[in-house]
Amino acid sequence: MTPRTFILAAFLPGTVAACASAPDFPAGDAANAPFPKIVPISEIQAQVVVPPGDEGIAELAARAADLRARADALRGTTVVDEATEEQMQDALSSS
């Protein structure tokens, strides 16, 4: 990389950022407003109303049962053919 290219690459982002417009800051009463109060998340969560119920439980249980059935079907099956497995075993025993 030539020095000229390096200098151009170093200053290009700064010149592009300098062309951006300044942010709009509030004026009047909004400029002098107090900062928001920082509160613990537990206080915010305590204000959220969670309706009681078990919506979605049946669908979730059905999905879990389906995944268990698929896992049971895959147990004991091989994913590689016999020739490939022999090559893998040969490679393990020769090392």
What is the fold's blueprint, element by element?
Layout: H1 3-18, H2 41-47, H3 57-74, H4 82-94
Please explain how this structure is put together.
Helix content is 57%, strand content 0%. The protein contains four helices and no strands. The protein has helices spanning 3-18, 41-47, 57-74, 82-94.
Give structural attributes:
signal
How many individual helices?
4
Q: What percentage of the residues does DSSP assign to strands (E)?
A: under 5%
The radius of gyration computed from the alpha-carbon positions, rounded to a whole number of angstroms, is 32 Å
According to DSSP, the number of beta strands is 0
Order of helices and strands: HHHH
The dominant shape is: flat
Indicate the low-confidence ranges by residue numbers: none
Q: How helical, in percent, are the residues?
A: 55-70%
- Regarding quaternary structure, what we see is single chain
Largest sheet: none
Query: What class do helices, strands and sheet pairing give?
Result: mainly alpha
Give average pLDDT, whole number.
83
Intertermini distance? 45 Å
